[in-house]
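Students often ask why we bother encoding 3D structure as a string. The short answer is that it lets us treat folding as translation between two languages. Here is a chain of 111 residues written in the first language.
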Amino acid sequence: MRRLIGIVLIGLAAVAVANAMVNPRLAAPSRPAVAQIDFAKCNRLAEMAGAAMALRQLGSDESAAMRQDMSGEARRIVSRAYGEPIAATGDARALAARNFADSVKHECIRG
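And here it is in the second language, the structure alphabet:
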């Protein structure tokens, strides 16, 4: 049951990748001041990162995750996700997607 839930979560994240990766609002100035952190942007990047890593964990080809209309930042995130290994179990794959999303979100917040 846990494995099925993990696979379903990865599948749902993969669906979100199409919407999150092409959002033009992802570009932001470098090193924003603490008062200027765009938490909505960081959440979108995290969602996209989780979806990209979910696709990676499903074994999908990197070219399938890349889209022509993606921003440079989105392309870098997808490339980073595909630089990571595929986990051995469904639970580990779901955890890899969550951890990668959290990592990208924290990097965004830190600037």
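Translate back mentally: The chain has a mean pLDDT of 81. Keep this in mind for the problem set.
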